[in-house]
């Protein structure tokens, strides 16, 4: 029996804490692909592509020694699996948003945890005979990506239960999602200690079953309504300790007859802000995904410089460098938990100083009271600043990635992590500020799906890099750096739109003041209703 919304509200802190932990361990773990790739290669996934041209004796030797051959063909095939999984990680958000609006987060979370458990079980099973069962990796990463985004997307509705700190909780949720890329590097540390890869995957599958149980016991069947949602009313009970609210579901059927907004979904989708955000998010997604998928080969090139026949010592050094830097990159993903609340703070900057949104519907305002900021204009201002800051970091990341200095790439790792957490918080905050609440899920899902389709370009870029460019990522990184400058188009339009809103507000206030004078009401006696 699913708990009611009032029961879920009493358990909101337990749900929030467990959702953060579950996001860290089960959401976008596939983004820690660099560490997983090393383990899959060590376990022999698609190594048969490298030994097809070898003699039978060398095949037997590699099997008995437990060391598998590696080659470009193997890396291209495994990278294709990463492309599919990362695509589903973003593309599934549109149908998920529609389904969640209709059925609530509970069934999707149950399905997501089941898919993740199944993905770990399939990887563990394939590891018993990788020469035959390697194709299972494509199904496994598909389930992994879909299950992960189910857990992520459903957790983004939970902050609605936290009122004034909703943006902060939302940023923490996004931060835990972005930080989940640290999970596979953590798993690799356990793997390097000698623990069987198959045992690790089976244990992980069992842990995903605990997520299923937690959701079954604590998550309500209905979605968490936003404070402005008509599906519930807020009753503030003032006492000496706190403010609490009770959700009155009895009015739900009556209030559902009302329309949340006069703005249609088609108008929101076709609006300039949403279209510009598609360009910014698609560009950023491709930039970030390509770096994660090709990072190991980039590091290897900085050691071997594309030498087709490196010495044994150089090969060993390249392998050690790749393992070391991929572990550092994975560990740095935890920075998202610290940096995402920062962008949430920027998005909430001076919002407490803004007038209530209902105040804009009244012509009479107190002139004796201090003038307050317009809420909508302040939201746009904060979003514009957040996008400018994020895009500056992205361009800096692109410049550093062009420099042929391996230790300096640690800075690019940090910037990559920060941008990946910031960009989703910026986009979510912008949609929440500009569009009706009942459009948020669909717009976010549509944007993620289009960005995921565009990010599929990372596979041909990767093939171009390891093939024609012989592992040299310079020209691809240079092209992506130029392309990333398009990210400033969105804050440019936000500046233009904000200026128009300020002009309209000034004209509206002037007309209201003139009307008050005509009616003979002294300005000092005007009051707010």
Automatic annotation (TrEMBL):
This is Solute carrier family 43 member 1b. GO terms for cellular component: plasma membrane. PANTHER family: LARGE NEUTRAL AMINO ACIDS TRANSPORTER SMALL SUBUNIT 3 (PTHR20766:SF0), LARGE NEUTRAL AMINO ACIDS TRANSPORTER SMALL SUBUNIT 4-LIKE ISOFORM X1 (PTHR20766). Pfam families: MFS_1. GO terms for molecular function: L-amino acid transmembrane transporter activity; neutral L-amino acid transmembrane transporter activity. Its main location: membrane. The chain crosses the membrane at residues 12-39, 77-98, 110-128, 134-156, 168-187, 199-217, 324-346, 383-403, 409-434, 446-468, 474-496. It is found in: Cell membrane. The gene is SLC43A1. Belongs to the SLC43A transporter (TC 2.A.1.44) family. InterPro entries: MFS, MFS_trans_sf. It is a multi-pass membrane protein. SUPFAM superfamilies: MFS general substrate transporter. Keywords: Cell membrane, Glycoprotein, Membrane, Transmembrane, Transmembrane helix. It comes from the Eukaryota. It comes from Myripristis murdjan. It catalyses: L-isoleucine(in) = L-isoleucine(out); L-leucine(in) = L-leucine(out); L-phenylalanine(in) = L-phenylalanine(out); L-methionine(in) = L-methionine(out).
């Amino acid at each position: 029996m699913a708990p009611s919304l009032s029961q879920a509200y009493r358990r909101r802190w337990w749900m929030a804490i467990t959702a953060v932990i579950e996001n860290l361990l089960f959401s976008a773990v596939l983004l820690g692909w660099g560490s997983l790739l090393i383990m899959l290669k060590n376990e022999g996934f698609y190594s048969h592509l490298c030994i097809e041209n070898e003699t039978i004796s060398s095949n037997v030797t590699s099997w008995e020694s437990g060391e598998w051959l590696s080659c470009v063909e193997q890396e291209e095939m495994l990278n294709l699996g990463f492309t599919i999984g990362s695509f589903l990680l973003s593309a599934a958000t549109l149908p998920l948003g529609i389904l969640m609006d209709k059925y609530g987060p509970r069934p999707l979370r149950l399905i997501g945890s089941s898919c993740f458990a199944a993905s770990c079980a399939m990887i563990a099973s394939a590891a018993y005979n990788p020469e035959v069962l390697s194709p299972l990796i494509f199904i496994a990463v598909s389930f992994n990506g879909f299950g992960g985004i189910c857990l992520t997307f459903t957790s983004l509705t939970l902050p609605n239960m936290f009122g004034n700190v909703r943006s902060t909780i939302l940023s923490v949720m996004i931060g835990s999602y972005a930080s989940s890329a640290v999970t596979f590097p953590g798993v690799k540390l356990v793997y390097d200690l000698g623990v069987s890869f198959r045992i690790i995957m089976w244990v992980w599958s069992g842990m995903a079953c605990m997520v299923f149980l937690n959701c079954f016991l604590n998550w309500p069947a209905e979605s968490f309504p936003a404070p402005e949602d008509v599906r519930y009313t807020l009753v503030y009970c003032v006492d000496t300790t706190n403010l609490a609210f009770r959700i009155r579901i009895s009015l739900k059927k009556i209030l559902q007859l009302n329309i949340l907004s006069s703005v249609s979904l088609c108008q929101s989708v076709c609006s300039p802000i949403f279209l510009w955000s598609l360009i910014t998010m698609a560009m950023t997604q491709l930039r970030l995904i390509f770096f994660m998928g090709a990072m190991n080969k980039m590091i290897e090139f900085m050691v071997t410089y594309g030498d087709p026949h490196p010495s044994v010592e150089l090969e060993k050094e390249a392998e050690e460098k790749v393992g070391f830097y991929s572990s550092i990159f994975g560990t740095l993903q935890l920075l998202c938990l610290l940096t995402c609340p920062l962008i949430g703070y920027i998005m909430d900057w001076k919002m407490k100083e803004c007038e209530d949104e209902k105040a804009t519907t009244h012509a009479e305002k107190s002139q004796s009271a201090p003038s307050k900021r317009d809420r909508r204009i302040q939201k746009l201002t904060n979003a514009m600043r957040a996008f400018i800051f994020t895009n500056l970091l992205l361009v800096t990341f692109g410049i550093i990635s062009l420099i042929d200095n391996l230790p300096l790439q640690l800075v690019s790792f940090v910037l990559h992590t920060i941008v990946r957490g910031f960009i989703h918080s910026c986009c979510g905050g912008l949609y929440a500020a500009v569009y009706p609440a009942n459009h948020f899920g669909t717009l976010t899902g549509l944007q993620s799906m289009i960005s995921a389709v565009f990010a599929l370009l990372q596979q041909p870029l990767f093939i171009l890099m390891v093939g024609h460019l012989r592992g040299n990522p310079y020209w691809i990184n240079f092209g992506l750096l130029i392309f990333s400058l398009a990210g400033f188009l969105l804050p440019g339009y936000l500046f233009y739109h904000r200026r128009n809103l300020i002009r309209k507000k000034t004209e509206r206030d002037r007309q209201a003041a003139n009307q008050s004078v005509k009616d003979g009401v002294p300005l000092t006696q005007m009051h707010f209703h």
